[in-house]
Amino acid sequence: MKDAAALAAKGEPHGTVVVAESQTAGIGRHGHSWHSEPDGGLYMSMILRLNAPGPTVTMALGLAVQRAVDEAAGVSTDLRWPNDVMLNERKVAGIMVQAVDTALIAGIGVNVNQAAFPADLKEIATSLRIESGVPHSKDVLLDRIIAESLRYVRLGKRDILRRFEERSSYVRGRAVEVDGRVQGITAGMDENGFLLLQTSSGIEKIIAGGVRPL
Predict the structure, then answer these.
(1) CATH no., domain 172-213
(2) To the nearest whole number, what is the mean pLDDT of the chain?
(3) Identical fold between 2-167 and 172-213
(4) pLDDT confidence of residue 85
(5) Which residue, 21, 136, 146, 210, is the most exposed by fewest CB within 10 angstroms?
(6) What's the confidence (pLDDT) of residue 52?
(7) Under a CB-based contact definition with an 8 Å cutoff, are residues 60 and 155 in contact?
């Protein structure tokens, strides 16, 4: 994301993409690490110049990555609020959006052909299996993610939130825990895309945090 941020500062246009074959220091939200094997993933950063709030853009990108992964890899994924793409209840892709000057930098990581994960991740992460040189190659997946991302970020906020709720099993009626501090049943999102959680003491608005199923 640093390279994309530097390009954005130089005035590179909306939709400029930086792609890495591997990562040596991948990060996720809240400083969490992102495990990467050599040639074992798909990592990209995209410059977005939009008049839209970061949380809504994050969900739009989640929808885009979900659609691209499902169609390119022939799987059926879920969306975990606000930015994780899940396959069989394990994380297969993540999105992080940061504001840099007048642009947003979207970092997207997809686990592709990862053979193993560290002990602390092997129960919660998974990977796509995509052969090179065939129609469902990493290049095809990359092209689809870029195309779908540029399409979805242009949607209106209400449309993005509606589609996200339709495509996510986590947004409504799911028993979850947030950051180990609060438990409840998800009750949809508010008009800004913040998660609503029905707890024993009432509705709590979740602005940010790691959501895990109970």
Answers:
(1) 2.30.30.100
(2) 89
(3) no
(4) 98
(5) 21
(6) 78
(7) yes
Tokens of residue 145, six digits: 């993610």
**The tokens of 80 are what?**
């975990």
- Strand partners for 93: 85, 110
Q: Spell 29-67 as b/e; 16+ CB within 10 A means b.
A: beeeebbbbeebbbbbbbbbeeebebbbbbbbbbbbbbb
Rounded to the nearest angstrom, the gap between the alpha carbon of residue 132 and the centroid of all alpha carbons in its chain is 24
Among residues 148, 60, 145, 45, the alpha carbon closest in space to that of 98 is found at 45
Q: Which residues contact 5 (CB under 8 A, 6 or more apart)?
A: 45, 98, 100, 105
Encode pLDDT of 178-199 as tens digits: 999 999 999 999 999 999 999 9
Residue given tokens 């686990």 in the structure block: 111
Question: pLDDT of 122-144, one tens digit each?
Answer: 899 999 987 665 555 888 999 99
The CATH number corresponding to 2-167 among 3.30.930.10, 3.40.30.10, 3.40.50.620, 3.40.50.300 equals 3.30.930.10
Domain ranges of the chain: 2-167, 172-213
Report how far residue 74's alpha carbon sits from residue 109's, in angstroms, rounded to the nearest whole number.
18
Alpha-carbon distance 56 to 54, whole Å? 6
